[in-house]
Amino acid sequence: MLRMTDRATMKAVTFQGYGPPETLAIRDVPLPMPGVGEVRVQVHASTVTRTDTATMRGHPFFARAATGFCRPKMPTPGIDFAGIIDALGAGVTGFAPGDRVFGLSPDSYGTHAEHLCLRADAAIAPVPAGLRFDQAVVGEGAWYAHGTTSQLDPGQRCLIYGASGGIGTAAVQLAKLRGAEVTAVVGARHLDLAAQLGADRVVNYEAEDFTALGQTFDLVFDAVGKTSWFACRPLLTPDAIFAATDLGPGWSNVLLGAWFARSARPRVQIPFPKDASGFVRSLGGLLAEGRFRGVFDRRYPFDDVVEAFRYVETGQKTGIVGLTVRPEEATGGDGAG
Ligand SMILES: NC(=O)c1ccc[n+]([C@@H]2O[C@H](COP(=O)([O-])OP(=O)(O)OC[C@H]3O[C@@H](n4cnc5c(N)ncnc54)[C@H](OP(=O)(O)O)[C@@H]3O)[C@@H](O)[C@H]2O)c1
Questions:
Q1: What pTM did the predictor assign?
Q2: All residues at 6 or more sequence positions from 44 whose CB lies less than 8 Å from its CB, including other chains
Q3: Which atom from ligand 1 is nearest to the alpha carbon of 163?
Q4: Is residue 306 domain-shared with residue 240, that is, in the same domain?
């Protein structure tokens, strides 16, 4: 049996100050022990996301209220995880050692490590049968997308700008699952992908002015932080929502959001998703039924984590970038990704 006094260690990505990818290093750190009500997961797969790169940089500055002003409070990044439960704290029911699980750690991060402890009632769910760990780490972008697409009603018209990124690829699928009619705006290299994800109409922003489609939408979602409410005004019905992942030029999304908050229906939003645990459970169901799939750009081995952060920072990834913490033999996964 493992005891605290064994001084066991694990490998974890750590950063001791904010900065570029070179700030990151894989170090030996104490193996975490699950507390009351917690499980410990032996992590096999994670992702590197734009949230991870922003956390590494400490940008935007106000976000340091959560992550630490002068130095990171949470020294190991990473939000998505999939792996095997290898220890239980006191009082845990519903999970057993050996369970294959996936989920999110949006508050304390720490998934870029060989092990992770989190509450058993947190955002954690069984990996759907037939899915490899590296196919199950699809939650972070989907959760952010859900914060916006969950506002759609069946039959509503929705435009997703930047539908090729981690959030955008999820948003197209989740909007379709809500019964919306989806127009996806992407660059030329992603036209086929957007159609395969279910978009009813695909627009190439490199060849066409997407703000001059001659059509209006109930929801316009800037899923990549590259447009603005001002540019999209011709697309908006009088009651439309303009939602964005980013602050907007000159913090316009924040300022307009505050301005419109006086109205009955806030019209400019940076939706922050809630209820990660409920979302992960429902995502597990969608994955199991084959109604949602992660779009994977590439996967990096754990030792190449700095390279992975560098690539994600280019803003050019398609969907998700995986991080393989502990390689898994193929287990008859469904071939997604
Ligand atoms: N609100 C939050 O809490 C939160 C959380 C996470 C992320 N974010 C933000 O959300 C945004 C999206 O994150 P993500 O991970 O989904 O992004 P991402 O995966 O890095 O997005 C990259 C994709 O965007 C496309 N793209 C680049 N420039 C574009 C443009 N001008 N117009 C349309 N598409 C363009 C790229 O393809 P092409 O260049 O070929 O078009 C690429 O496929 C980021 O800005 C991030 O900072 C916010």
A1: 0.95
A2: 82, 83, 84, 133, 134, 324, 325, 326, 327, 328
A3: 34
A4: no
The model's confidence at residue 262, banded by pLDDT at 50, 70 and 90, is confident
For 134-150, what is the mean pLDDT?
98
Domain that holds residue 159: 141-269
Query: Phi first, then psi: what are they for 269, rounded to 5°?
Result: -135, 150
Q: Does ligand 1 have an atom closer than 6 angstroms to the CB of 189?
A: yes
Q: Are residues 132 and 145 in the same domain?
A: no
244 CA to centre of ligand 1 in angstroms = 11
CA dist., res. 269 & res. 229, Å (int):
10
The CA distance from 38 to 121, in Å, is: 8
């505050």: which residue's tokens? 258
CATH number, domain with residue 265: 3.40.50.720
Domain count, the chain: 2
Ligand 1: centre distance to CA 152 (Å): 21
Residues 242, 160 share a domain: yes
Whether residue 280 lies inside any domain: the answer is no
The model's pLDDT over 72-110, given as tens digits with 9 standing for 90+, comes to 999 999 999 999 999 999 999 999 999 999 999 999 999
Does ligand 1 come within 6 angstroms of the Cβ of 317?
yes
Q: Which residues lie across from 116 on neighbouring strands?
A: 41
